[in-house]
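can u pls check wat happens w/ adenosine-5'-diphosphate
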Amino acid sequence: MFIEPSITGERRGWIEVVCGSMFSGKTEELIRRLKRAKIANLKVEIFKPAIDIRYNETQVVSHDANAIQSTPIDNSQTILLMATGVDVVGIDEAQFFDAEIMHVCETLAARGTRVIVAGLDMDYLGKPFGPMPQLLAIADYITKLHAICVKCGNIASISYRKTAQAGQVLLGEKDTYEPRCRKCYNEKE
Ligand SMILES: Nc1ncnc2c1ncn2[C@@H]1O[C@H](COP(=O)(O)OP(=O)(O)O)[C@@H](O)[C@H]1O
Ligand SMILES: Cc1cn([C@H]2C[C@H](O)[C@@H](COP(=O)(O)O)O2)c(=O)[nH]c1=O
Ligand SMILES: [Zn+2]
């Protein structure tokens, strides 16, 4: 489990990235860290891409229906405008953001903000997804989570797309994706 660094004296900024396949628990972990920050009376703001309206338009919601209020945005630069005076910034579904999100996170951390980013490291083809490789490179702390392979019960790291639709971006849930281990993913059946 991730334990928050203990900082005494002057406030320091840093970047945490939580990555993994679908159903690996990224959103739950993001919500857990943000709720703990709220308990510590820190000022917290959460952002998600406006395109992600699967469960709710303004909440970040996990597959287990855990939820936290968030602001949907189209452009990562908006975070800088809305995060003045904020202690902790949470960002969900970071794979859908533009490349500028890397600089946004660096700027926030330089201002003394704790930044917690959650996102899919790989798409359904097993390829790096959007700005996630850059975010992982600049992160101070990385947590890679795993789901359970629906085929064999081993640890899953890839999101298998069950439909024939192509294209990197395709919103969906269990109807469209299932987490698989590398062996079951390669069997493609
Ligand atoms: N195959 C699976 N492996 C692990 N968790 C699963 C699986 N299918 C459903 N879940 C549920 O999904 C939850 C994680 O949801 P969530 O945090 O939204 O994941 P993520 O954001 O990584 O997609 C788990 O706590 C579990 O209840
Ligand atoms: C693998 C993959 C996923 N997506 C979409 C499907 C979901 O809407 C989100 C991921 O949500 P989660 O919180 O990680 O479960 O991303 C996609 O558009 N393309 C893909 O290749
Ligand atoms: Zn498997």
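The chain has a mean pLDDT of 94.
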